[in-house]
Amino acid sequence: MNKKIVFWIVIIICIIAIAVCSSILFVKSKNGGNSTFLGTEVVNNGEENKNTIVAEAETVDIFKGNSRPIAVMIDNNVNARPQAGLNDAYMVYEIIVEGGESRLMALFKDAKLDVIGPVRSARHYFLDYALENDAIYVHFGESPQAQSDIGTYNVNNIDGIKEDGTTFWRVKDKKAPHNAVTSMDNILKSAQKKDYRTTSSKESVLNYVPEEVNLEEGQVANNVTIPYSQSNIVKWSYDEVNKKYKRASKTEQQKDWTTGENIMAKNIIIEFIANTDLIDGENKGRQTMNTTGIKDGYYITNGKAVPIKCEKISRNSQTVYKDLEGNEIKVNDGNTFVQICPTNAKVVIE
Questions:
Q1: pLDDT tens digits, residue range 131-156?
Q2: Domain boundaries, the chain
């Protein structure tokens, strides 16, 4: 017989033998043998070896545990900068306020921060995003409309103007009203005094996933420019090494007050919402907007951007971010800046 034929016959016989042995071992394991295979898990049940090897499932780090989120209004005036705590927030919402300025609302879970701020006053439409995150809302003062809506929606809030003087303090290296700060420990102590719930079973607004999301079909997004007004322009630049975006605002690279680190974001969501002057009798140019309905936007991550739709049924319901086919988008495990900007903002993605 040809040697090559003999060789291949031997190989086939060996393969069959290995397959048969494997089957026998599997059957034995199903009937009280030494090892049971459970997906990616191996559990040893033998008398001599009781070691257990369990493969851990992938989990999302940015949003875990049952601690209730804390939403803090952060001053974004040039006199308030640099701010403390933005890099430690799992989400930051930036929305326009009076005078073409914008204000930030940072959301925290289990953050241990000795300084957060400077903290600024409430605006009523920020409540919509505090409510959808089931957050305790922290601010220093409030507009008349915000005060009314806090009562109407029974928002658990901590107002620095009404506190006993221990929750907030003023720093000397910034000028009032841009120098009121707090800490996470102080916030939680105040929440406990007010008998606010400090745990939450509500799921994240964003559909975070543990695997890396790369927007293969998206447009290049190495630089993103978002003009809130002529004097208030936000710029994000992509850092390929860290796979994050670095933030600049009003021509200034933004850094953390306490660490000196650049303000960075893994994800950026842009949402376009029309804003108009609020008629509240005070003539201060405060703004209002309808956050509900379906809005246009973009999801940006890992150097790419895709258009999305942002759907919010009611003021206290969670926004659902969808692709143009109607599927909820998958979001990278990391901190997110939600840039809610005017509909006429000439956003540039390049």
A1: 999 999 999 999 999 999 999 999 99
A2: 3-53, 70-349
8 Å CB contact between 117 and 166: no
Tell me the C-alpha distance between 168 and 153, whole Å.
Answer: 24
Rounded to whole angstroms, the Cα distance separating 74 from 341 reads: 17
For the segment 226-279, what is each residue's pLDDT rounded down to a tens digit?
999 999 999 999 999 999 999 999 999 999 999 999 999 999 999 999 999 999
What's residue 31's pLDDT? 41
Q: Which of 5-19, 152-166, 206-220 has the lowest mean pLDDT?
A: 5-19
- Going 232 to 204 to 128 to 294, the CA torsion angle's sign is positive
Provide φ and ψ at 97, rounded to 5°: -130, -165
Q: Would the CA dihedral through 173, 174, 176, 180 be positive or negative?
A: negative
The CATH H-level superfamily of 70-349 is YerB-like (3.50.90.10)
To which H or E segment does residue 208 belong? strand 208-209
Q: Where are the alpha helices (DSSP H) in the chain?
A: 3-30, 126-132, 144-152, 184-193
Q: Report residue 153 as tokens.
A: 């929606």
Structure token pair of residue 160? 């620095």
* Nearest one of 309, 340, 337 to 123, comparing CA atoms: 340
For 17, the 3-state DSSP assignment is helix
Distance CA 320, CA 311 (A): 5
Residue 71 CA to its chain's centroid (Å): 12
- What token pair was written down for 186? 């102080």
Name the pLDDT band for 164 (thresholds 50, 70, 90).
confident
Per residue in 265-315, pLDDT (tens digit) is: 999 999 999 999 999 999 999 999 999 999 999 999 999 999 999 999 999
Alpha carbon 5 to chain centroid distance?
63
Asked, as a colleague might, if the bond just before 118 is cis with ω within 30 of 0, I would say yes
Q: Is the pTM of the predicted complex or chain greater than 0.70? A: yes
Q: Which two tokens stand for residue 126?
A: 């920020």
- What's the full length of the chain, in residues? 350
